[in-house]
Design goal:
The protein is of the alpha+beta class. Helix content is 22%, strand content 34%. It has a seven-stranded mixed beta sheet with strand order 4-7-2-1-10-13-12. The radius of gyration is 21 Å and the shape is globular. It starts with a helix and ends with a helix. The relative contact order is 0.12.
Length: 316
Amino acid sequence: MRGLHVLPLVCLASCAVAQIDYKVTMDRANAKLKVEVSFAPKGTETSLYMPRWAPGSYGINEGGVRIRDLTVTGAPGPVSHNGSSNWSFPNGGAKRVTVSYTLDTPVTDERVHFSGPSTYVYVTDRKEEKCNLELVLPANWKSYCGLDAAGPDKYTAPNYDVLADNPVSIGLLETDSYTSHGVPCTIVYSGGNPKKIDRKKVAAACQFVSDSEGDFFGGLPYKKYVWHFIVVDRPDGGWGLEHLSSTEIGIATGLGNLTKSVLAHEHFHAWNVKRIRSSVLGPFDYTQLPRTGALWWLEGVTDYYATVIPHRYGMF
């Protein structure tokens, strides 16, 4: 019986080590995000990397150039900056280290929106470990994110890819909500002027898309969903970027059929691209752009159904 008690203790110790803790503090006065990454180092050296591109947005953006004042506490050695996106330091037997850096971020009307690949460095060769995210916000600010909640302004992800794939909106934000197929969905206005758009019509359009596409597929593939909207003053159209359980969309105030098609397109990606995908689209190599010949399926088929489903279900 004694031997049966050892294995759980070993497992608990291992689980405590195999995770990366992220803390993001909003410095509203200086328009900066302070990011802290804490973990138990492994081996003799730690290598950090900031993604050079964001999934769904296929262009090199060199997110590492935005990082300011990167420091490491807990490790004895100096930090080496190896190009625009890579840092390394010797562990020196440290039990736990914290990497800190700041990022400039615009604060407009008490609203801030940020994406994972341009905010979080990852520990090289440890992207598969569990990640925790804690947000430290000014008084009365709230956070909205597609990740599983672990407490007020705290979230958890099974690995770095999922952490990075969930953008975050924080601030004093206008929001609306609805339920589709038993799943809670939240609409967040993270940019632009929400007073220029009919929020009831937006909520109805989002619900229609969730209901119809969920019906088409036989249910929704996520436990929660967040629409991050940036309001654009124009009669129709828009742009979007898909994620596992959320999307970022520039939504036209006119809310015409092209705009509704953008909603349908990005939401359809929750299945096609995020879960039905080429192998290069996850797990990700953030050091170089992926190459696939399947964009005709990933984008073409999505665009087709972004028109067909709303038409078949009566949106237009």
